[in-house]
Q: What sequence folds into this?
């Protein structure tokens, strides 16, 4: 009997083998949706920090693409300049938290605001069989953005107290959000804090262990549902530390920075892998190149379960619609278990209760 999307994702997050490979995303750009579904300007309420879609819109997108999750965004504001980009996209510019006096700017909304969570509860009540993910941030990324990369880096040595106070305010906010997400019955929580370039991490493992890990452990105590950590870039220097947390999955194993096949060998069975169809392929390649890349991931990463396919970040506005549809189509045709691995051995499903 086929699983529901919710059951399918839950099995993968437990590192088990579902009936087919789930497809989940933590962002689908409204401009791509406009291309795919023909929506007009009234549907382009893109928000860089808040929920971009109504429940009906989210379900329409998931149904059209065949996604197994819906996502609900609750993020604290970032105190940095907002810079307009192409097609209405927003980017963060110069940080606004440079000195202790600037902490007066750092006024975060009430993370327990009933208005926010009443809307989230209605979203959950209507989710149907989808897996519902709460997308937020743990705190290190808005701290870096709010201070600016250069000022943040200098302050790590010149004014650590400023960094820690800024970070602590965000982490305390995220702890309440995690409690609310758990209470309401979200199926997973995703913290999206980029901490790496394509080649290595933004700061050293020593700084990560000293600055971030104690705060991740504090957040962990407030999370009662599967926890997914997202970061672009090469996060391997931090991965052993992250695996000491009770995280269910890591996303997205950016192809240019990390080898998801090596990750399967090293972490498979301990960590669900979510990723990593390359945005360059989706944005500049051909449908056949997308098909070949997805088939390779199915062959090499899906066997044995514990795998959720996803783009290598999110479904961005600059992706070619025909390539996104190619990803959808090959998953439909090739994504059912049992799946042969690269040695042509059939990997039979693990029994799921």
A:
């Amino acid at each position: 009997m086929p699983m529901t999307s919710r059951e399918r994702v839950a099995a993968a997050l437990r590192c088990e083998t579902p009936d087919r490979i789930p497809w989940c995303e933590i962002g689908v750009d409204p401009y791509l949706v406009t291309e795919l579904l023909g929506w007009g300007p009234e549907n382009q309420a893109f928000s860089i920090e808040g929920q971009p879609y109504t429940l009906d819109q989210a379900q329409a997108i998931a149904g059209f693409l065949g996604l197994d999750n819906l996502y609900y965004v609750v993020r604290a504001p970032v105190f940095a300049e907002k810079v307009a980009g192409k097609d209405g996209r927003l980017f963060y510019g110069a940080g606004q938290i440079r000195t202790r006096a600037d902490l007066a700017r750092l006024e975060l909304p009430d993370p327990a605001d009933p208005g926010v969570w009443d809307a989230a509860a209605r979203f959950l009540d209507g989710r149907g069989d989808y897996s519902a993910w709460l997308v937020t941030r743990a705190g290190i990324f808005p701290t870096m953005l709010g201070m600016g990369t250069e000022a943040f880096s200098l302050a790590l040595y010149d004014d650590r107290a400023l960094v820690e106070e800024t970070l602590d305010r965000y982490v305390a906010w995220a702890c309440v959000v995690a409690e609310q997400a758990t209470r309401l019955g979200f199926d997973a929580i995703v913290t999206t804090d980029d901490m790496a370039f394509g080649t290595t991490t933004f700061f050293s493992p020593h700084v990560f262990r000293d600055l971030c890990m104690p705060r991740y452990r504090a957040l962990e105590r407030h999370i009662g549902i599967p926890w997914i950590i997202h970061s672009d870039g090469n996060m391997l220097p931090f991965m052993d530390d992250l695996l000491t947390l009770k995280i269910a999955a890591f996303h997205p194993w950016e192809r240019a920075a990390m080898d998801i096949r090596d990750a399967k060998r090293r972490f498979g069975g301990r960590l669900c892998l979510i990723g990593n169809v390359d945005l360059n392929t989706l944005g500049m390649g051909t449908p056949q190149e997308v098909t070949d890349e997805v088939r390779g991931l199915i062959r090499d990463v899906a066997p044995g379960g514990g795998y959720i396919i996803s783009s290598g970040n999110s479904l961005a506005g600059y992706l070619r619609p025909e390539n996104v549809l190619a990803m959808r189509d090959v998953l439909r045709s090739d994504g059912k278990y049992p799946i042969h691995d690269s040695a042509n051995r059939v990997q039979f499903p693990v029994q799921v209760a």
